[in-house]
Amino acid sequence: MAKVEDAARAALEREHVDDLKHYYSQMLLLRRFEERTSEMYVKARIGGYCHLNLGEEATIVGLMAALTPDDYIFTNYREHGYILARGVPPGPVMAELFGKETGVARGRGGSMHLFSREHHFMGGYAIVGGQVPLAVGAAYALRYQGRPGVVVAQMGDGTTNIGAFYESLNLAKLWQCPVLFFIVNNGYGMGTSVAMGSSEPDLWKKGASFRIHGEQIDGTDVLAVRDAVRRLRARAEAEGEPAILDVVSFRFRGHSVIDADRYRDPEFVRAGRAAHDPVRNFAALLLEHAIVDEAWLKATAERIDREVQEAIDFANASPDPSFEDLYANMYATPVPNTPGPEDALHAARINRGES
Ligand SMILES: Cc1ncc(C[n+]2csc(CCOP(=O)(O)OP(=O)(O)O)c2C)c(N)n1
Description:
Layout: H1 4-12, H2 17-42, H3 57-66, E1 72-76, H4 80-85, H5 90-97, E2 121-125, H6 131-145, E3 151-156, H7 163-174, E4 179-185, E5 188-189, E6 192-193, H8 194-197, E7 213-218, H9 222-239, E8 243-248, H10 266-275, H11 278-288, H12 294-317, H13 341-351
Parallel strand pairs: 1-2, 1-3, 3-4, 4-8, 7-8
Antiparallel strand pairs: 5-6
Helix pairs in contact: 2-3, 2-11, 2-12, 3-9, 5-12, 6-7
The structure holds thiamine diphosphate.
């Protein structure tokens, strides 16, 4: 694995200042969005499960910086940051977390099912590994139709122990699908470490018996992630060569907002946060190379805090989905014996205490 600082320093010489500032701003947006999301969850503004991207900001921003508008992405349930970095504004994302009609999935999906067809953001899947075969299918469709672009199958380290992952690797290589298996290796699948859950802890090697190329990269280095994805996506698009990218980062908190993280030694977590904070480390690098100054960092933080607050205000002020609409969009065609608008109206009457 390349050393973060050496790689970043060498790369900085060739970078555009505006790009660097943009990456930093995006990473800070993800950080502040997730911190406020955690706060909103504790205040019960957000229901259901809620998984945060804290510590994974460079992984996400680096990936998205390398993709083109033609590309598609399928993710797991830990996806707030991905849809933001793909360019969907924070307001409709926060509104979706709040379950509001103005959300990206009209409040029906919630935290684990964010979606934007316009941005080629295909969700948000709660079943571990569920997104992986779908991503390969989409990549096959791109190839079959002769369209440009690649598909990213984002997943966690634990997902590489699921059967569907291996079936997907096999078909991806066999059918020359332009797909990138993007493993966010934050060291844990819930409370199970990589070493405890995987007989092959070097996750990038898991494509070997399918003849799929794999690499490991430092996921706390935004430029290293971007460059690796650019290289592998170009190859996938031009040659139909799938690849595995094992992107190592540090999970700042428990598995989800309600996980007390008791299985990790507090000292390990403290030291990991101190050493592997991608946002703070990138700020230090930009300061050190006089690319930004303290005043710019302060103004950026204030702008982003305002932006996230506006997203919260928008979500708060947005309407709930209506009862009448409760069963809309469940099936594409009529299905016998499923609930319909009449049942929704009945539920609404009960809710109002009318019968
Ligand atoms: C098929 C299936 N099995 C179990 C679960 C419960 N579950 C939810 S998240 C998770 C851990 C997945 O870990 P990883 O793939 O490393 O992703 P991360 O949460 O770290 O992003 C498990 C076992 C599930 N949602 N689906």
